[in-house]
């Protein structure tokens, strides 16, 4: 947790204000306001193309937003210099949708990549540490010698999770963590995510359109629709939010305000 | 009138597109080179790229050079025998190989073999989010992926060209001695009397420039690939085509710079 700054009491771990991003004439994010309290898990739901991934990539610094602010512990990361931004990113872990494991490296090198990149550890210790983290996500350390292409989809997700938590980040991001997995493996991955977040005491932000996953992972939830957050509330109330957009989405109904958009 | 205007507009769009692409490529190259002077440097990636460039390309470059040297000897003999100028063949072979064929053939072969593989690898990393993942793991993708490959290309191709030069001359020597009946000693003496240090040096400079360009085009096209498997395929093709054209264009420019009178 190096580089952490103690924020004033009551400051959200992550605060987003007026975030806007357009690609050409398409306004993907249209004024996002979002607070995520420290130590909680926020799930952002929304249909394909609603801007979920763009939101995540803006927070991670992979895409530069057109306007707005993104504060981590009260510091606007969009105004930081490159090195300062890199220091903030060291406190962040990310599980990508398809794992995004480096296929030219072995599993243990993937897991320990962040630690070695930060010069926190030599290769021998990194290998031992990777074994420990693999055990933490339910894999045998011997898996570390395999190549990512030799793993099943579920194992790749576990390795991706191991890589994300290896440096014990303060903030964890999950991009569609259960996509492509069968329901049982999805539940297993969700369970691991919840356990890792609780063990590390991290703040988590997950984007998903898997309702079972959303309710399992999230303390709070928000729905993104046409670049705006149209609803925020407890994740437990997702299935009975009273918001017609959320209700239609969470129950997968064909009729409703969203279907009109799909027909255009 | 409107037809003329639309033609001018199309030409303008093409020129603007070209200038934009050239600017983007130049900035990409500048950023990658600047990382050479800012630690950390990823030696493991450099060595892996260097082996890919120099070691695994060696057999095909060596065979191509050997046969090309032999072909030049045969073709020169056909032409020069008409004027009783067979003694010039050794000089023609060594100058052709050392100044032009060695660097250009090695460049074109490496562009097809290594440049394409580089574009495909980096392109796949782009479309599967591996490059974004590097960024989230405190690693600058440019520094990790591009800079080591550029340095490897720049240093490895001159080594390949040294081998190509030797084998190209050897190919000419074998054909001249075995098939055309030249005296081995006279052939070797002629070769060394014609070849000057500048011939070899310029060939090596060309090789370094070609190596840089091949790695640059492979990395640039891969890094900017979009749209899944099709995008990676397009990036691979574009890298080979662009690198091949650049090798030939820079070959002319460097020849003009060093040898024009």
UniProtKB/TrEMBL annotation, chain A:
Keywords: ATP-binding, Nucleotide-binding, Transport
SUPFAM superfamilies hit by this protein: P-loop containing nucleoside triphosphate hydrolases
TM annotation in the entry: none
UniProt domain ABC transporter: residue ranges: 14-251
Pfam families recorded: ABC_tran
The keyword ATP-binding appears for this protein: yes
Gene Ontology molecular function, alphabetical: ATP binding; ATP hydrolysis activity
PANTHER family: PROTEIN TRIGALACTOSYLDIACYLGLYCEROL 3, CHLOROPLASTIC (PTHR43023)
Protein name (record): ATP-binding cassette domain-containing protein
Organism of origin: Lichenicoccus roseus
From TrEMBL, chain B:
Subcellular location: Cell inner membrane; Membrane
Keyword Transmembrane helix: yes
Originating species: Lichenicoccus roseus
Superkingdom in the source lineage: Bacteria
Pfam family, any one: MlaE
Keyword entries, A-Z: Cell inner membrane, Cell membrane, Membrane, Transmembrane, Transmembrane helix, Transport
GO molecular function, one term: phospholipid transporter activity
Its job: Could be part of an ABC transporter complex.
Transmembrane annotation, as ranges: 55-77, 89-111, 155-182, 203-223, 235-254
Full protein name: ABC transporter permease
Keyword set includes Ribonucleoprotein: no
Topology in the lipid bilayer: Multi-pass membrane protein
Any single GO CC term annotated in Swiss-Prot or TrEMBL for this entry: ATP-binding cassette (ABC) transporter complex
Sequence similarity: Belongs to the MlaE permease family.
């Amino acid at each position: 947790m190096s580089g952490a700054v103690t924020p004033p009491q009551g400051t959200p771990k992550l605060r987003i204000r007026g975030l806007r991003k357009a690609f050409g004439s398409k306004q993907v994010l249209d004024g996002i306001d979002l607070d995520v309290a420290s130590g909680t898990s926020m799930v952002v739901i929304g249909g394909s193309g609603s801007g979920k991934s763009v939101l995540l990539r803006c927070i991670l610094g992979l895409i530069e937003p057109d306007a707005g602010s993104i504060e981590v512990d009260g510091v606007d990361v969009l105004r930081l210099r490159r090195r300062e931004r890199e220091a903030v990113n060291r406190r962040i872990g990310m599980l990508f949708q398809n794992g995004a494991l480096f296929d030219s490296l072995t599993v243990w090198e993937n897991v320990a990549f962040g630690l070695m990149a930060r010069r926190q550890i030599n290769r021998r210790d990194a290998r031992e540490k990777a074994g420990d983290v693999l055990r933490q996500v339910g894999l045998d350390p011997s898996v570390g010698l395999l190549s990512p292409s030799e793993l099943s989809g579920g194992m790749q997700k576990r390795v991706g999770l191991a890589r994300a938590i290896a440096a014990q980040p303060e903030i964890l991001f999950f991009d569609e963590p259960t996509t492509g997995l069968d329901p049982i493996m999805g539940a297993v991955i969700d369970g691991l995510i919840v356990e890792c977040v609780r063990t590390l005491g991290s703040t988590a932000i997950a984007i998903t359109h898997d309702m079972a996953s959303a309710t399992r992972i999230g303390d709070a939830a928000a729905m993104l629709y046409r670049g705006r957050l149209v609803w925020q509330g407890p994740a437990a109330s997702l299935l009975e939010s009273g918001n017609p957009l959320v209700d239609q989405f969470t129950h997968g109904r064909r009729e409703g305000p969203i279907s009109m958009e799909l027909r255009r | 009138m409107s037809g003329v205007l639309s033609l001018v507009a199309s030409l303008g769009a093409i020129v603007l597109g070209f200038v934009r692409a050239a600017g983007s490529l130049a900035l990409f190259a500048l950023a990658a080179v600047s990382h050479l002077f800012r630690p950390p440097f990823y030696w493991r990636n450099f060595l892996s790229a260097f082996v890919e460039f120099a070691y695994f390309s060696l057999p095909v470059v060596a065979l191509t050079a050997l046969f090309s040297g032999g072909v030049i000897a045969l073709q020169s003999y056909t032409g020069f025998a008409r004027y009783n100028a067979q003694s010039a063949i050794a000089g023609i072979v060594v100058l052709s190989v050392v100044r032009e064929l060695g660097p250009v053939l090695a460049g074109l072969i490496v562009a097809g073999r290594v440049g394409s593989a580089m574009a495909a690898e980096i392109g796949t990393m782009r479309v599967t989010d591996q490059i974004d993942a590097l960024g989230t793991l405190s690693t600058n993708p440019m520094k990790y992926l591009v800079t080591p490959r550029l340095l490897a290309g720049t240093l490895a191709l001159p080594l390949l060209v040294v081998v190509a030069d030797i084998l190209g001359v050897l190919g000419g020597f074998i054909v001249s001695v075995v098939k055309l009946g030249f005296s081995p000693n006279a052939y070797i003496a002629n070769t060394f009397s014609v070849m000057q240090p500048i011939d070899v040096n310029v060939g090596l400079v060309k090789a370094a420039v070609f190596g840089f360009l091949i790695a640059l085009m492979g990395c640039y096209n891969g890094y900017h690939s979009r749209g899944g498997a099709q995008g990676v395929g397009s990036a691979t093709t574009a890298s080979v085509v662009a690198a091949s054209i650049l090798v030939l264009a820079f070959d002319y420019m460097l020849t003009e710079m060093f040898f024009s009178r």
